[in-house]
Design brief:
The complex is a heterotetramer, with two copies of chain A and two copies of chain B. By secondary structure, chain A is of the alpha/beta class. Chain A has four helices and twelve strands; from the N terminus they run H-E-E-E-E-H-E-E-E-H-E-E-E-E-E-H. In chain A, helix 2 packs parallel to helix 3 (134-140). The mean pLDDT of chain A is 96. By secondary structure, chain B is an alpha/beta fold. Chain B has helices spanning 9-12, 34-43, 63-67, 84-91, 102-113, 177-183, and strands at residues 21-24, 48-51, 71-76, 96-99, 116-121, 135-138, 141-146, 151-162, 167-168, 184-195, 214-217. In chain B, strands 1, 2, 3, 4, 8, 9, 10 and 11 form an eight-stranded mixed beta sheet that branches. In chain B, a hairpin with a 2-residue loop joins strand 6 and strand 7. The longest helix of chain B has 12 residues, at 102-113. Classes of the chains: A alpha/beta, B alpha/beta. Strand 5 of chain B pairs antiparallel with strand 5 (116-121) of chain D.
Chain lengths: 213, 225, 213, 225
């Protein structure tokens, strides 16, 4: 594996942020996706949805500003943007499942070339794992972006022919943003759209478990 | 960012083409989007599938569209005693009707809104409503499978809309409006009043802005009877 | 058919009103049931539900007091009792179908000895008829009372072995209140519980299309 | 008329017997009925089936009941990183778990509330969640049949309750509470404040009184982390 610098988690988030259309309703999952709110391009307005029943979530609360009845889905105290609203969790997931979110961004353990996503459970890990809102969000978002490192800590590809980790949803991923590339999942295969500075398509292909078009 | 506010009701319905499936809010004279309905009458869209609790009050509410021959199919729970233009066109077979129990009508729209593909209910078992539907027994109860009702548009009447599209409704004029607003691909709202962003308390929003695509200010019209 | 006085519609309503338990959540349908609110026994508190999204409906509006955004399911302007609430029609019918109403009272064209109800369409009538909320209410109420005349205008029984009119719901009726009797629908048959003044069980049986226990 | 207001949390849970199925509101530290949970710990009810998004935060929230060995089965979407008492008892098989996607958990409770007998969804198709469930294709989409989740009790945290049982919730402490309040046979509410009838605007009621059976005033308890 080439020992060259890769994008940081923050850079991945910034890269994913550029995928968001103006005016979009967006849900951000655990991990890298949760950093996206801090890297929105200037002039872009998006509305953040949280599956615990908030639309129009603002920035994280500053020290002293925390209200523990106003938390995001990661349990982090947040603020409200103007025009926010609250609703119950069934309505929050009516939004996720029903195709009302323009974009959802989730973390991932594996994505297959068909766009299958595995992101909720590591095989062999202690305990039963936890699904949370990921399956509803993956099944329902108009556009699903997955942000993750391109390879595991051991260097194994996380973009694979077939997922070996427990699945979150089948054929749900539209775009994968990693520390090496931006890849679109199309009917005909994985399309390498952007490459991290200093890397070549050939190097990225070697770290990817499925063919890149 | 694209604005949701339209200058007038005619602009708000300008792209509603022949054959459109449209949900219309309102019940018992309250909460009908009468200004949008009149705009649709002016536009002259034909072969509409209308989804609505009832079928108009003489030439008021949906009556105008039946009078004009713009609706070819309607999904409703209770056409109503004063839906004479519907009744005429139903008698001459110019209009077909799917009659649905009122709560099941709500629930089928909600299923569409919530991305569900169908549900089982005891409502309608053993009645005309069950005709042609899958029946099975779950937990010793006979039940039938009901399918989602989708629509291209929902025409909604709100009391207040903020500039982002958050809505509140007045009293019992709420009725079908919040359900339909969630269920349609494009939700068009006539609001008595458009208020600045932030004017509606976040805890008091009834329809969150995510469900609203077009907003137009229009004063309510009411039909007697 | 004996030419003796029967209960008036108002007396039927008053009789049905005595069936309501204190504190009950109640839906009243078209026709005679809608009169019940005017005949509640003194000291009884019940909360009226309307399927267009009102809980805690008060009396009808007086002349000059009408607000046409505050109507009942019959389109009649009403008032609010203290502690009322509004909700959308799907939640209103979640209440009807989900067993949340303690009592619903509907009108009827026919009730069978098994408690089947026909109340939405007269065979041969012009037009397609209208179901409204009746099927949801009949399917879901904890206790369903039907108020109707004991016989048709032609003297035919409305309480029958098998309904010949289009059905509203199967085996849903608990109690029938007519201008001649109060009858409970039990697993073993129809139980004549109350008889109108001046009438005999035998006379009522003759006007009833199924055996009375 | 029977009063819904109880003098204290212990009285409100006094009849909760061993083997009860109980829904617990709350998400992310907000909206948990912690006073009722503590009362249930004092009462010592055992063999509880708990329905809750998560499985406690150390000995806070549901953690206390897992610590005490009061819960034998749990239906949850995300046990959580700090649910150590759950994890211990899960590892020793003293507690069994049904893991349900969060929105499907809501929807299955809502189905129970709405008198529906099941629904079809694409969520979970091809995953562990689909194991043992009926699968079919509707409108060219693979989907699975999900069943209602009923409960004997719901433990609910509200901000305000009026004396009849109308409820409002504070900010995102709303979460699962309104759904569970509708789904259980007996809904027990701890409210920060009990207000006179009429103090909550009819248009701003979130949970109508019909769903609420017992109310007790209790100040919120929050667990860190």
């Amino acid at each position: 594996m080439p020992d060259k610098p890769r994008l940081t988690r923050e850079q991945i988030a910034a890269c994913a942020a550029r995928e968001l259309p103006d005016g979009a309703y967006v849900n951000l999952g655990w991990g890298i996706p949760n950093l996206i709110a801090d890297y929105l391009p200037t002039g872009l307005t998006v509305f953040f949805h949280s599956e615990n029943g908030i639309l129009g979530m603002g920035r994280r609360a500053r020290p002293g500003e925390e209200d523990y009845d106003l938390v995001d889905a990661m349990k982090v105290p947040v603020t409200l943007a103007p025009g926010a609203s609250f609703f119950h969790q069934a309505d929050a997931h009516l939004m996720t499942r029903g195709g009302h979110l323009d974009v959802a961004v989730l973390g991932g353990f594996q994505v297959s070339e068909k766009g299958d996503l595995a992101n909720w459970k590591v095989p062999g890990a202690r305990g039963p794992g936890g699904i949370g809102g990921a399956m509803d969000i993956a099944a329902g978002a108009k556009v699903l972006i997955v942000c993750m490192e391109h390879t595991t800590k051991d260097g194994a590809p996380k973009i694979v022919k077939h997922c070996t980790y427990p699945l979150t949803a089948l054929a749900c991923v539209d775009t994968i943003v990693t520390d090496l590339a931006v890849i679109d999942v199309r009917a005909d295969g994985l399309v390498l759209r952007e490459i991290a500075p200093g890397w070549t398509k050939k190097e990225i292909q070697e770290l990817t478990g499925a063919p890149l078009l | 960012m694209k604005q949701k506010i339209f200058p007038n009701v005619d602009a708000a319905v300008a792209d509603v083409l022949d054959g459109a499936r449209i949900m219309f809010g309102g019940f018992g004279g309250a909460g009908f989007p009468n200004n949008l309905i009149q705009a649709l009458a002016r536009k002259g869209t034909k072969k509409i599938t209308a989804i609505s609790n009832n079928c108009g009050t003489r030439d008021g509410e949906l009556g105008l569209l039946f009078k004009n021959g713009q609706i070819s199919h309607v999904i409703a729970s209770f056409p109503g005693p004063h839906a004479n233009y519907f009744q005429e066109r139903f008698a001459t077979k110019e209009v077909t009707l799917e009659l649905v129990p009122q709560g099941i009508l709500c629930e089928r729209m909600r299923a569409a809104a919530a991305g569900l593909l169908g549900f089982y209910t005891t409502v309608g078992v053993g009645t005309e409503v069950a005709t042609g539907k899958e029946e099975r027994v779950i937990d010793s109860q006979r039940c039938i499978l009901e399918s989602p009702i989708q629509a291209d548009y929902a025409f909604i009447k709100a009391e207040r809309a903020d500039e982002l599209g958050n809505l509140t409704y007045r009293l019992a004029a709420r009725n079908f409006n919040p359900i339909m607003a969630m269920a349609a691909k494009i939700t068009i709202v006539e609001a008595e009043e458009i208020v600045p962003v932030g004017a509606i308390e976040p805890e008091n929003v009834v329809t969150p802005a995510i469900f609203v695509h077009r907003i137009v200010q229009a004063k309510g019209i009411r039909y007697a009877g």
